[in-house]
Amino acid sequence: MSPQLLALFCSMSYAGALVSSRLGLRYSTPTTVTLVSILVQNVALWSAVFLTGGIPAAAPIAIGLICIVGIFQLGVRLLAYTGVLKIGASRSSALQSISPLVSATIAIAVLGETTTPPIVGGTFMVIAGVVLVSWKAEREIAGFRWRHLLLPVGAACLTGMNHPMRRYALGLSNEPLFFSALMGFVSFAGFLIYMGFSPTKDPLVWNRQAIWPFLSTGIFETFSLILIITAISIGPVVVVAPIAATYPVWALIGAKLFLRDVEKITLKTVIGILSVVAGTVAIHLGK
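^ that's the sequence the OP posted. Answer follows.
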């Protein structure tokens, strides 16, 4: 299967995770869906690792990088699902997809890379989209606070750092299945530490009405993780990332179909999401 097709399926799967998590979050908390998602990832992927020959030999540097990615992925989950709860799946996914803008900014400011017209144009499209998505959100979202917008943006920053590290690790040891499972193990260990020491953690709430949506979230997210790391292992990031970043469009469709009684989607929101996605693609193509 081509990396482009894997990236497309990844974007659809991750959108499914965000939408299904919003269904369950009506009855539970972000920490609960994070834990369920991590457990599903570990059970599914470690079973696959041992059924396909066991733990392979891998470069120590690659393992170290994947462990860092696992910690970052825990942060992505906590920030993303809290963002879904606070501002909705469609808005949160749009803001979370600005990770290419983050990576491009770092590359220009820190690494001295030069900008190009597509990057400049894409940046303005992303900014315009973010403004449209967040404009007068307090009138459309109960309990909205401007700081809530930082949740998916924080997830975007961590995602922007994850892709290059995954790509470098895969270049040292091309073991996408094992690395995906290892990320899950590290995320689980990090989650236990977070729950033990974080003074502001949300409680774990086990509600029967949330279980199936959360299990669906775990399945969708596990598929998205294995799909993106496999796509990156066989194709360049500049090709894979723009396609994978289209998940806000699929999340918007999912929200329209399944979250009609939960999220209010306006024309302004739709235009803003499409602008963010188009700008994200332009930034990647302009590198």
